[in-house]
UniProtKB/TrEMBL annotation, chain A:
It comes from Mesorhizobium sangaii. Keywords: ATP-binding, Cell membrane, Ion transport, Magnesium, Membrane, Metal-binding, Nucleotide-binding, Phosphoprotein, Translocase, Transmembrane, Transmembrane helix, Transport. This is Cu2+-exporting ATPase. Residues 39-105 form the HMA domain. One of its GO terms (molecular function) is ATP hydrolysis activity. It is found in: Cell membrane. Its main location: membrane. CDD domains: HMA, P-type_ATPase_FixI-like.
From TrEMBL, chain B:
It comes from Mesorhizobium sangaii. InterPro entries: Cyt_oxidase_maturation_cbb3. This is Cbb3-type cytochrome oxidase maturation protein.
């Protein structure tokens, strides 16, 4: 029936984030109050792929009691639900969708506000398009030989049509140009604004005087073309932003507080130091605190980069963001949310933000060179003609013709069009680009630094010796593991389901935090877990951490030995080879233990690595490289990487990264493979090349056209043709990034690198 | 030339009509889900109004 198999790819993409529970109370916190007891929730449902998915989602939700409206959005992969609480309970939207086979999560209200900028641009574009086309219609008649009263009437109608375009659509450029000028800078919008306004002014003057030439068509179609570029650029950024915002949040929005009145679900901001909080297994710790009761293990991979779960018992200090794996914990908040580890990271990020703020866009740098030259030429031709002919009007006309013909239409489109095409290519490859400047900065990097856990590796264990484990024992282990959320249990289940070994949940199962699982059937005791505990005797201290061992034991007899490794991201090795081939330096910055990092580094052939780094160490390392005039690409996922991501020249994060890291990164990749990093680098390099070509085309065109303009040979017809031609040329050149296959060459290079590794 | 005095305003009026129609569709959120609009026609049930 359905064309899609929900779950298959989501399991890959969502990964450990899927562990975060979304209680119904959270829905209340995250819904918008529409008044009259009606609430609106925005759900992100990444697996909507086709009409039948939309129908299923809408039908599932609308049949829930309390739901009044459900509308799925296929382009955004979202669903808007309007609901009413029934007996003070929110409907279980997420649970109902899960039962129907769709993973979903709730958006925060503030991430879903569609920017008004988009509709402002579209409206301006529509007005400019309408005016430009009608004026062009009239202009063609004038060029074809309309004379006398008819021409005069057409010019007046054109003037009337041009006015709304200039005032309504042009203000986007005027405001931006004015803002730049007021700060003593220039940007691309300054020459555009001057050109448009002067062309309009001169044409209006000529129309009043009954002159033969008017440039209304040039002024309005220039606005129209540039607005197309502007709008596409905005749509690209918006699409990436909404795709990133649609990822599941790793930070809890609330917590279960235990006090004299019982248990309540409270938003994070209302938690005060000293409050008792219950953290269930599978939830993340909401604020920094001290464990009061309970025993469990904590997954620190997102926070510190350590792979080995940390045991937790009464008295352990815990940081916000740690994932509670095995047992419920009661903690006492030690700080408010705004004073937590997370907030500390955000403060460090703000302090570190430097490279990005200082960066000036290519287009702005180009216009800083370009506008003085063009304006000087226009002024000189005005003065030259004035001194020769003493004719004010003719001189001004020629100066304005120079401005129109050099009007940076091609220059204004040169950069955004290429970046839009590049962003679309990256989007198809599952990489989201935050804005165009990120592409420019990525093309400049010379060093790539990777975080280890969660970036080079997936940050979750993976059973490596499935083949050598007896299938019966694996089935037994899977049955025991099926009730547990411990990463190793999840890995056993994944391995068992791959080998199509059925897992039936077991009764009489106990989970011992830090040790393992125990099941009893009759007099038989099965244990699955740490070797010393499972066998009930001391074992020599072996290598642990980046790979570790669990035993399945029946009454003291070993049934199977399960070896886990932190799974390397697919394509890690080939990506690093590809980056090296491009002449980039590659290094690892990790918060994990030295032995674990060294293992992985030697596995990947990376000599430059640093382990046991604090977040501030990572920032310092990047700052040191930056002062040495190195441009660093930082690829990381954890909370501890967030300041480094902000400090680097450009940064990239996987979709499974902590929220803060994801927001700090310029690029977010959704695919599991690390190849996205090399893809993004190569596409941005190609984009940079095309942008330079486009600049060359625009400058070359001006070099040919300007002499004609200075000599006074440019009529409105020539100006319109030349301008459109140069724009088409630039756009066509940008499209080559989409159509050309610069990747075939590289694919063969990849193959040879792989065979090389195999034979090594 | 009298036909021009009649045709040009008509042409511009029709253009304005198109512009107004576009603004109306924009305000009615008809561009919110372009892929969805294309897919919805394939739905089995005939309801085009969201419930």
């Amino acid at each position: 029936m359905s064309c899609c198999a929900p779950g298959a790819e989501a399991a890959l993409e969502i990964g450990p984030a899927g562990l975060v529970s979304s209680p119904r109370e959270e829905l209340v916190l995250l819904s918008r109050d529409l008044g009259g007891g009606l609430y609106q929730a925005d759900l992100s449902v990444p697996e909507i792929h086709c009409a039948s998915c939309m129908a299923t989602v809408e039908r599932t939700l609308s049949t829930l009691p309390g739901v009044e409206y459900a509308r799925a959005n296929l382009s955004m992969k979202r669903t808007i639900v309007k609901w009413r609480p029934i007996a003070d309970e929110a409907p279980d939207l997420i649970g109902a969708l899960r039962a129907a086979g769709y993973a979903s999560h709730v958006f925060t209200a503030e991430t879903d506000q569609r920017s008004p900028e988009y509709s402002r641009l579209i409206k301006a574009l529509a007005v400019a398009g309408f005016c430009a086309m009608n004026i062009m219609l009239l202009s063609v008649s004038v060029w074809s030989g309309a004379e006398g009263g008819t021409r005069q009437a057409f010019h007046w109608i054109s003037a009337g049509l041009a006015l709304p375009a200039i005032v309504y659509s042009g203000r986007i450029f005027f405001f931006s140009a004015w803002a730049a000028l007021r700060n003593g800078r220039t940007n691309m919008d300054v020459p555009i604004s001057i050109g448009v306004l002067m062309a309009f002014g001169l044409s209006l003057y000529d129309t009043i005087q009954g002159g033969p030439h008017a440039y209304f068509d040039a002024a309005t179609s220039l606005l129209f073309f540039l607005l197309i570029g502007r709008t596409l650029d905005h749509v690209m950024r918006e699409k990436a932003r909404s795709a990133v915002a649609g990822l599941a949040s790793l930070a809890p929005r609330g917590a279960i507080v235990v006090d004299a009145d019982g248990r309540r679900y409270v938003p994070i901001a209302e938690i005060r130091p000293g409050t008792s909080i219950l953290v269930a297994a599978g939830d993340r710790v909401p604020v920094d605190g001290i464990v009061m009761a309970g025993a469990s293990e904590l997954d620190c991979s997102v926070v510190t980069g350590e792979t080995t779960p940390r045991p937790a018992f009464a008295g352990t200090l815990v940081q916000a963001g740690l994932l509670n794996l095995t047992g419920p914990l009661t903690i006492t908040a030690a700080a408010e949310a705004k004073d937590s580890f997370l907030a500390e990271m955000i403060r460090m990020m703000e302090a570190a933000e430097g490279g990005r703020a200082r960066y000036r866009r290519l287009a702005d740098r180009a216009s800083a060179l370009y506008s003085p030259v063009v304006h000087a030429i226009a002024l000189l031709s005005f003065l030259g003609w004035l001194s020769f002919t003493r004719d004010w009007h003719a001189s001004v006309s020629i100066a304005i013709a120079v401005l129109i013909i050099t009007c940076p239409c091609a220059l204004g489109l040169a950069v955004p069009i290429v970046q839009v095409v590049a962003a679309r290519r990256l989007f198809e490859k599952g990489v989201m680009v935050r804005d165009g400047s990120a592409l420019e900065r990525l093309a400049e990097v010379d060093t790539v630094l990777f975080d280890k856990t969660g970036t080079l590796t997936l940050g979750r264990p993976h059973l490596v010796n499935t083949a050598s484990v007896d299938p019966g024992a694996l089935a037994l282990a899977a049955s025991m593991a099926s009730g547990s959320r411990h990463p190793m249990s999840v890995a056993i289940l994944a391995a068992a389901s791959q080998g199509s070994v059925g897992a039936t949940p077991m009764k009489n199962l106990g989970e011992y935090p830090g040790r393992g699982l125990e099941a009893r059937t009759g007099t038989t005791i099965y244990r699955l877990g740490r070797p010393d505990w499972a066998l009930g005797r001391k074992m020599p201290e072996g290598a642990d951490g980046w790979f570790s061992v669990s035993l399945l034991v029946q009454n003291g007899q070993q049934l199977a030995r399960l070896v886990f490794e932190d799974m390397m991201r697919s394509g890690a090795r080939s990506t690093i080879d590809r980056l090296r081939q491009q002449g980039l330096g590659v290094g690892i910055l990790s918060g994990d233990r030295r032995s674990a990092v060294a293992d992985l580094a030697s596995n990947l052939g990376i000599d430059d690595f640093a382990a046991e780094m604090l977040p501030s160490d990572k920032v310092e390392r990047i700052a040191a490289l930056t002062t040495a005039h190195s441009k660093v690409l930082m690829v990381g996922d954890g909370l501890n990487d967030a300041p480094a991501l902000a400090a680097a020249h450009v940064s990239m994060a996987p979709a499974t990264a902590a929220d803060v890291g994801r927001n700090a990164a310029d690029f977010v990749f959704l695919k599991e493979s690390l190849a996205s990093v090399a893809d993004a680098y190569e596409i941005s390099r190609n984009a940079g090349k095309l942008i330079r070509q486009n600049f060359a085309l625009a400058v070359g065109y001006n070099a040919i056209a300007v002499p004609f303009a200075v000599c006074g040979y440019i009529t409105p017809l020539v100006a319109a043709v030349a301008m459109s031609l140069s724009s088409v040329l630039v756009v066509a050149n940008a499209m080559r990034l989409g159509s050309r296959m610069p990747f075939r060459r590289r694919a063969s290079g990849l193959l040879s690198a792989r065979t090389l590794n195999a034979t090594r | 030339m009298s036909y021009l005095a009649f045709l040009v305003p008509v042409a511009i009026l029709l253009g304005l009509l198109g512009l107004a129609a576009f603004m109306w569709t924009l305000r009615n959120e008809q561009y919110e889900d372009l892929d969805g609009a294309a897919a919805r026609i394939l739905m089995d049930d005939d309801q085009d109004e969201p419930k």
